[in-house]
Structures are given as C-alpha cells and as structure tokens.
Known about the structure:
Layout: E1 11-15, H1 21-30, E2 34-38, H2 42-49, H3 60-69, E3 73-76, E4 84-87, H4 102-111, E5 120-123, H5 132-140, E6 152-155, H6 165-171, E7 174-178, H7 181-192, E8 199-203, H8 204-234, H9 239-246, H10 269-276, H11 282-292, H12 294-305, E9 313-317, H13 332-342, E10 346-350, H14 364-368, E11 373-376, H15 388-394, E12 399-402, H16 409-414, E13 418-421
Parallel strand pairs: 1-2, 1-4, 2-3, 4-5, 5-6, 7-8, 9-10, 9-11, 11-12, 12-13
Antiparallel strand pairs: 6-7
Nicotinamide-adenine-dinucleotide binds at residues 15-21, 38-41, 44, 88-91, 103, 106-107, 110, 124-126, 158-160, 162, 264-265.
Amino acid sequence: MSRAESLPVETVCVLGLGYVGLPTAAVLAVNGFRVTGVDPRAEVLQSVNRGEVPIHEVGLKTLVQAAVNSGNLHAQSEPQPADVFVIAVPTPIREDHTADLSFVEQAARSIVPHLRSGNLVLLESTSPPGTTGGLLTEILAESGLTPKKDFFVAHCPERILPGRILSELVQNDRIIGGIDEESARRAAEVYRRVVDGEILVTSAVVAELVKLVENAYRDANIAFANEVARISHECDADGWQVIELANRHPRVSILRPGPGVGGHCIPVDPWFLVGAVPDLSRLIRTAREVNDSMPAWVAERTLAELADVKEPKVSIWGVSYKGNVDDARETPALGVLEILEERGVRFSVVDFHVKQFKHPLDDIEASITDADCILLLSDHREFALFEPAAIGKRMRHRIVFDTRRCLPRDRWEDAGFRVITL
Ligand SMILES: NC(=O)c1ccc[n+]([C@@H]2O[C@H](COP(=O)([O-])OP(=O)(O)OC[C@H]3O[C@@H](n4cnc5c(N)ncnc54)[C@H](O)[C@@H]3O)[C@@H](O)[C@H]2O)c1
C-alpha cells in the first residue's frame, strides 16, 4: 500500500505555549502557516489572543502581535485537526530524578482524535531516548492509523537560549530525527520554511541523545569549573584567575563557576541519560551532584562571613537562574535561601527581571538598607551599574559576595567593600 500523500503543509497545531511553543507558533505564523496554539492555561490563551505575551523575551511581543494581527495565529484550549502537530510541553523530572513524561502523554492523547492520514507529529520537548519512537508513537497509533504509513513522527529538539530565543530559533542548526526516513524528510521540509540554520537529518533516538548529551556536556564542564573554584578556595587561590589563565591554553576551555545550575534544561536533561543507562553514566551523575551542592556551599560561605554579626541581614541580588532573564525555574537561589531561612538569617530579595518568586521581591533601597552583606546570585546587567559608595552608605557592613564575578571589583573595594568571589 502506498504511503500517505505528502501534501503542502498549511496548518499547524502547536501544543504548549511556553518559552519554546509560543515563539515557535509565532515564527510559523509569520512565515505563512495557519497556526493554532493550544495551552490549558486560560491566562496564556487570553494574553496570546490579545497579541500580548506572558513571558519576557526580547522581540517576542512584536512577533506575537504580528502573528495574531495577520490572522495566522489563534490560541485555544483544545487541539483541532491540522497538517502538522508540534508538541512543546514540559518534560520535568520527579523528586527521584526520573523523567515525568505525563505532559507528553496528555498532549499525545489530545492529538489522537484529530489525527488524520498524512499528518506529521513533531516532538520538540526534550525527552529520554526512545520516547519518540516508543511512548509517543504508540499513543498516536491508538487512533487506528499506522505509523510510518498513515502518519509520521519526528523529534526536533529545541536548543534556544532564553534571552536570545527569537534569533536562535531561526538561526540555530536543527537536528531532525525521524522514526523513519520519510518522517525525517517531511519534518525537514517544514523546518526549512522557517529556519536559516542547517537542517541535519538523523534518526529519532540520535536526535534525543544529541540534545541530552549537549546539556550533560555543559553541566559536566560547569561542575568542573565549580570544583576548580572550590579547590582553589581551599588553597587560598582565586579560582576565577586559575580558570582564566588555564583557558589561555589553546586547547582548554573551562566554563564559569557559579552558585549552582538552574533553568529548565541543564539541571534536568542529564538525569534522562542517568535514568536510561545508570551504570554507564557515572560522570554525568557526579556532575549533577557537584552542581547541586553549590547552593549549600554558597550559603555556608555567606554564613561564615557573617558569623560575628548579630542578627544579620543579607541583600539578595538576583534570583533568576542566569542574568538578564525573568526565568527563576530550578534556580539555585532557592537552595541558598532555604538554608539562610533555616538558620534564621533575614534576607531581602531584589530582582529587576523576575516578576514572580517564592519569596517577596523588594526594591533596591529596601533590600540594601541596614544589610550586612550583598549576595549576588544572578548577573543582571543593572547590578554592575550601581554606585558602590551610595550602596555602602545604606548598609550596616560593607561585604559583597559576587558569585558571578560581574561587579567591577576595584570600584567596590575602593568604596570600602570586602569583595568575595567563588
Ligand atoms: N525553555 C527553554 O529554554 C528550552 C530550551 C530547549 C528545550 N526546552 C524544552 O522544551 C520543552 C518545553 O519547555 P518550555 O520552557 O517551553 O516549557 P514551559 O513550561 O514554558 O511551557 C510549556 C507549556 O505547555 C503547556 N502544557 C502543559 N500540558 C499541555 C498539554 N497537554 N497540551 C498543551 N499545552 C500543555 C503549559 O501550560 C505551558 O504553558 C521542555 O521539554 C523543555 O525541556 C526548553
């Protein structure tokens, strides 16, 4: 029997309108596809249909407005028939570090009643090896249609960097992994219409592994930097200088140490490899453990600095997982603050990007007034612009722990601050 005809793709249904799904839906829409965005969150649907965006990302509002005004993007709570379905739902880990694929399962089940002969389903969510060809394809086959004959499935992992999502979405090379060659071919055709980067076609399991290996590699490199920082501290040396000078070797490239690794991807994805092949992923697991131990180390070093201060107050500068973004998911700041809270240390959080957080957010003046120490956890550009002398005047003690090494050290020292780095 012949395969389902490959007709020109016109309609796309994007499931999940978050950091990945919303920009993807908007980019597809402004490139001429008629896009239905699907999300269970009513507030997301309302804001998208008004041409607004629930997340802060450079250029995204303008793009979503253009997409909605063109009539090519509409958001609703349920999927509808389309030529292509794109799944961009969360794939978090559970407490025990195993993959929680329940969102992918729900999204796939919601597609089943609408699946038609010739459809293509693209999984953009980062997933453990075997998910695309296994769980996802099996659920879609509950439609009664036959995979690789009636419908096609591919994994197209997203590698965008928050803060640069729009340019990376278009410019990054894309890995397209089909459950068979025809699936990969059809998926590549869709991405070629919106991506300027190279389209690299492979199998679904290779695509799954590539995405996971990329993030496990970065996690291991950061863990190495963190270990170097801690070893250097123990040897009374400046870990940043050790790394900077080691990186002058033409074949050494160590990443930056920090208060821990956060975000939606790097602290999560390596566990998918550990879960799939535990006996063979010892280095990857250890890297995760090293990075997860950093918030406690930062908190203990802060407490040690304040050991002689009565009822200390800490001004926390930044809680997003990295600088200049509003994303505080999986942020190491939470681990640091948990320990300060347990030890009864008062703290006041200031962040110019994060709008919602577990702890109250204060303005800069309230945060520094009578503080004994500034603990900088996110390298937001605004922090480096502050006048240290003016900040110091409001504080009880002039100590700053710059875990990102983003403040101009000389200026802060000239203003009488004791500057600590990792
Ligand atoms: N954020 C990033 O920078 C990034 C980068 C690369 C890959 N990824 C991966 O992309 C995937 C999505 O990440 P994200 O950051 O966009 O997540 P997100 O939490 O920002 O957005 C996911 C959206 O999916 C919605 N959703 C949940 N269940 C749904 C369902 N059944 N149907 C439709 N919508 C549903 C949620 O309400 C939410 O709005 C994850 O696998 C993530 O690991 C994220």
